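Researcher: Structure for this, please.
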Amino acid sequence: MPDPQANAVALGTARPADPRSVQDGPCLATVAVDPALDSDLTYLVPPELTNLVSPGVRVVVPLGRANKTVGATVLRTEPCGNLALASPLELESDFPRDSAQPGHSPPPAVPTSVITPDPQLATGQPVRESHSATLWPEAKTLPRRIAPARTLKMLQSVLTDIDPIPEDLLTLARWISRYYCCPLGVVLSTIAPAAVKRNRRIPSEIFITLGEPSASTPNSDEPEALAPSPGEPRGLSPRSTTAAASPPSVPSAASPDVKLSARAKKVFSQIQPLLAAQAVPQGELIEKCGVTRPMLKRLLRAGLLKSEKRVLLPQTADLALEETAAETASGTVLTETSTSPTTSADQTVANRDSAKTLQLTADQQAALEEIVPLLDPPRFAVRLIHGVTGSGKTELYIRCIERVLAAGRTAIVLVPEIALTAQAVVRYTARFQRVTVLHSGLTESQRRQHWSATARGWAQVVVGARSAVFAPVRHLGLIVVDEEHEWSYKQDNAPRYHARDVAIRRAQLAGVPVLLGSATPALESWHNAQHNPHYKLLSLTSRPGRAGMPRVITVDMKAERRQRRGLHALSTVLEFHLRQTLATHGQAIFLLNRRGWAHYVACARCDWVLGCEHCDATMVVHHPLANPLRRNPRPSEAAVTVQCHYCLTSRLLPGRCPQCQARLVELGQGTQRAEDELRRKFPGLRLARMDSDAMRNAADYRDVLNRFASGELDLLIGTQMIAKGLDFPNVRLVGVLNADLAMTVPDFRAAERTFQLVCQVAGRGGRPSGKSLPSQREVPGSATSDSLSKRSLVVVQTMQPQEPAIVFAARHDYAGFARDELAQRQAFGYPPFGRLVRLVVSHRKDRTATALAENLKAMIQKEMAALATPATAASASLRLWGPQPAPRGRLMDLHRYEIFLRAGSAAPLQRWLAALRQRGLLRQGAASVTVDVDPLQMH
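Model: Predicted structure, token format:
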């Protein structure tokens, strides 16, 4: 009896070399291995695998003297030419046999090239691809000079069913490797999710179709079929290049070749009309039609029915509401013979929620008219959309995506944080039919499912966090970077790329436009919009309807403390307005960008301070709650703990000073302490705290937002995760409890960060009436959206009310802040008037770290003297300073010293980095050197 699932092959199956199936001659494959190796390696491809190896394909290769098997990505292939080769059997067993000989080490794979800098690397500027510099002059003729053949290692296997990395992403990866000074293999490992590389199972289901009595057992070597979404026509598959076969003739139970009982024939006659229209899932057929499994097996054995295993495509709307759904949750499916959506006519957008078309404002319409000429045919351009909070930037994105899909292309939409992805998915699935999601918060099965659906051309729109910039879309037409100023777009481990800049580079390579949207753009983007010819500024200065911007008042906390004894997180002004808001059934959002109870524990008598044993940081006090998501959470009786927020070391809070046994004082305020104060001063207040301590997963985050949207909660208090993306019309009061926290960081971007945070959280108030979540509805007693905007208030508590960032934020004056801040940046040559590279040298021994840093500085000075003439150095405004202790001089027992390189443009910095890299001075990990190009974090 044929197995109903015999026609399915597990994705990611490795096909090892088989010397008995030699088809073509061998070739050479240049690969980038996953480990951090700063050079490409060349391997010999067995003849039987030649047709399977192509750029972007995942392979398994031996590495090092121990021939450890590692994953790798093929970069290019080339014929062996006149290279004399041994027989296939000898080639296959060459390196294991040599490695077994005493005193003999197998020859290493041959490095062919290293990375060279780009001639033009300024963001948004055209970049001319340059050939890689070779380690040896004869490397370009390497295949003809290698002899004998056994000096090359043999490629072991090819992962044939893993979707290969497209050529455009390989080109992008090379640029990232050069610009961000990172091994190419590490970049490619970042582009392909771990779930894809590990061949995680994609949810699938058995479908039943009509068969033929003479149908043979399906070939088990055929790939898994993909089932169509409802209403999708059959035709060419995303991977197929030939037309689908004509449908088979309808089988008949009356055929003399079919021997069935009368009952079996009766059952078949009942289900035949249903299966004649479409394939039916096996479980549904058994449940609805009353077919037993033994009867189904008999019909399959007779050939009247045929089983087919189909990979399920993502049900994105369900994912937006339940991101932690089981891997096998049902979804729409796509057949291997269905029409590729990137070339079909049904790719036009349909609003599935309402037929009513939203009326664009004059600003939105003017911006749309500026963007539309860039979309069809597409051409590279960067449009910075500076829109005040609530001005309708998302609707503008959607209108642009509609035109992109109508032209047969796809779009990528980036959001700054995973927590905001669910809301974005709700908005885009309401307007588009096929949306995939890519971010690290998905399960591995879901991530593999969405990646594969995107790679096979099913997706119309890809939504995700920074990693979604690497989505393997077909026919890219537009990239949208929402909240482009957000620092979360910058990755904090290798490769330390900025998703906004990578999106611009990818759009430039693909020749498509990119939209950058923000109410508080990064100063680099604002400066480019004024001076870069590829950029243009589009402004949305008002909110739809009659909704106005909220009124902002500042409270001087120094004066407040002089008039009021004790430690209070809330000023008297904020307490008064909160009572007024609650009395009129309004809602409030309070921001305090520091979690925990207190961030400083010290002795009241001596100079002892409770610090982390492993880091140069104070321990933060955490008062555990029995359940922070309960309706009325109470402090638990568990012991109070302190934690380092860098290395996460935790221990109990000591009762007395270990030096003099005096009492300890807890200074500073966190979200836990503010929550406790609110509950004491406002009994019966329905509030929820949103920070990384309380929000353990996406379900908690979603639950709190749904409760707040339905009016079940009166107040949200939290860290910066509540400062953006939230859209609740009933919010009439916004409080910033300590606007000075960002100003205390030793960073030239401190003022910019403060301005952005205050403006973003202030924008949560006075929003125009709309629905950002499915459960959002009007709260009894609430006013109209117009009256809400008039009464919406933002209270900013600060110790520095005259600080320009605070003053400009209170006026909603971004242009004024940009003029003031850019003038200071220009005076000191900071970005955007120069480029920075931060090198951090770390070691467990302070003396060793200092020596390494000084040696690195000397090598840098030597390379700069060799590569830069006085004229070029002057024009580049070259400067080197350091080494100096990092702001956090010790983290996780590593002593850290930093060196800064600054130049007027990126090109000279890249030349010097490439020279240092080629000499092996910037090996990350081995030499304890971290390279951060265009750094954002300085701790």
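Researcher: Any notable elements?
Model: The mean pLDDT is 76. The longest strand covers residues 879-891.
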